[in-house]
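Chapter summary example.
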Amino acid sequence: MVTDSNVKNLVKILIGAAWIDGIIQPEERQYLREIAQAKGLATDPEIKPWLYELVPVQPKECYAWVKEYLGDRPSLEDCESLIEAISGLIYSDGEVATEEARLLTQLQDLAEQESAQQPVHNALLKQIQKLYRRWVEVQN
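The structure predicted for these 140 residues follows.
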């Protein structure tokens, strides 16, 4: 379960996601600094070197932080929340690099695995899919 104590880890993951393609875009930089400021972590000694690009984050570090953040058995809600947070960063520059898409895809796969283990969510998702398919058919 993700708790308030994981806010720092979430900011680390966002910084790692910005670095995952090897470069932080100006829009991503602005987004990260706003998030860090809002979370009260802009001057945190652990976060600051990454936030101000003094030290690059390697993709393996980002993935390790994701694993640490979600734990061994993440809930569907935790996965979806992380996907939403990372998506906000990734789409801030209007481009999605291959590495960024790969990260989102892996998180989505993890969310789907958790969803499969939650029959109620699965049944609800199937109902939503049926409604969507009907809507698409009506539109055509």
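To summarize the output: The chain is about 70% helix and 0% strand.
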